[in-house]
Amino acid sequence: MDTTGKVIKCRAAVAWEPHKPFSIEEIEVAPPKAHEIRIKILASGICRSDDHIVKGKVPQMNFPLILGHEAAGIVESVGEGVTKIKPGDKVIPLFVPQCGECRCCLDPKGNLCYKTDIGRYSGLMLDGTSRFTCKGKLIHHYITTSTFTEYTVVDEVAVAKIDDNAPLDKVCLIGCGFSTGYGSAVNVAKVHRGSTCAVFGLGGVGLSVIIGCKVAGASKIIGVDINSDKFAKAKEVGATDCINPKDHKNPIHEVLAAMTNGGVDYSFECIGSTDIMVSALKSCYLGSGTSVIVGVAPSLSQVSFEPMLLLTGRTLKGAVFGGWKSRDYVPKLVSDMLANKFNLDGLISHKLPLEKINKGFEMLDKGESIRTVLEF
Ligand code: COD
Ligand code: ZN
After folding, report:
1. Which residue minimizes the CA distance to atom 29 of ligand 1?
2. Distance in Å, CA 71 to ligand 2 centroid
3. Cβ atoms within 10 A of the Cβ of 34, count?
């Protein structure tokens, strides 16, 4: 049945209010307006930042809403004026859009886009309205994506067309966690061949940083986590050593300095803790070490450290989405995966149907899963 131009009724996991489990509902998804694309979502990963919203850690967020931002699907229909993407194309929705026109998009160095809804949190399409309703109520969108639903509508600037051969249950991770970690290593830090690296936090994002360090040719990659159960997987994807701060009396930057002739070339904070951000900075070596903030700390928190750490040649950096300009690079990352430049299998620990979404979040909470991919 051709659904083009019609309202689609489908299942979605709706977050009605913070601190409540998701409820699976029948929703209505309006057709795409001009420069919008309606997508049938086939796989969506459960990411830590979705969990932050559920836990009410982003107070500006408008409820009810449909979360999910790490996904892949197939285009169902396109609105007027969409020329480069057509029904049947495989796509990844983008939580950092690329309009191609704003100051950031025109700057070859940055990857943010002024069209992003991160920070503004309107929960609406770029035209200021929503395409979702449920039981007669308006349901908000989430950071230009909303993927815990069988169908979603996304602005054209927030969609990347990918290779027809891409396995959607894997490449969904390129929509957030993988690209964030991998790009932090190869793009933001620019890890060089033969270098030493320390990765703090061995969740899906930290593991993706390790994959990036390995692809870049680092000779020593040290994983740091307070949960030693995370070490086996870290070694499987490329860590050469793993350390647990709980097993050491000395501060962790001293332990790392002893292992690396005075400090690592590159360190990565993949936890979201301001204390660890300082540890990571102290862990990189005097002269030219670089530390990259990857984790998102609680809003309004502050980091404080001795300026001498920077004066003596260290660099502190950060970026969202691994510094990738999304529409330009997501298709390339998918092609690199298909060419076996890296492998995402190790990052997916569980697969569940959409109905089991609450179970997926529970496992994330307990540290039992790396990435759970919901399949529709
Ligand atoms: N010392 C060492 N390890 C620790 C500590 C500590 N003090 N505290 C926690 N850890 C470990 C945990 O045991 C766990 O293994 C790991 O740190 C964290 O992993 P996860 O599974 O909770 O989380 P990830 O890897 O999926 O993501 C972590 C981030 C903090 C990077 C993530 O939440 C985040 O902020 N990412 C996104 C950045 C971004 O661009 N966001 C926008 C959309 S997502
Ligand atoms: Zn832009």
Report:
1. 295
2. 21
3. 11
